[in-house]
Design goal:
Blueprint lengths: L12 H5 L2 H6 L7 H22 L12 H6 L25
Length: 97
């Protein structure tokens, strides 16, 4: 897969795999195909409905982390980010509470 590959109407692989830490440390954070399937499901079942609910574009803050990146950011060894099953988001103008 490539960063430009769309996973849903409004989200592409690059948005779900981007990490400043990965860029700074030259970590390849492109997921294997089985995890890319999880990311696509996450887009379709979580991100797209949230975007539709609030009618506002947003970018995920953190999503997929390969094992090397997860270690670099101090993530849990059992983090669902490593499986492409977790995403951190903020919708502009919407409280996190």
């Amino acid at each position: 897969m490539h960063n430009n590959d769309k996973l849903s109407d409004h989200f592409c692989l690059g948005e779900l795999t981007f990490s400043e830490t990965a860029a700074r440390k030259h970590i390849d954070n492109i997921p294997p195909d089985d995890i890319a399937v999880n990311l696509q499901r996450l887009c379709e079942q979580i991100l797209e409905p949230v975007r539709q609910q609030y009618g506002k574009p947003f970018r995920p803050n953190s999503c997929y982390r390969c094992p090397e990146l997860n270690t670099a950011v101090g993530g849990s060894a059992t983090s669902q980010h490593c499986k492409g099953e977790a995403v951190d988001i903020e919708v502009p103008g919407v409280s996190n509470y």
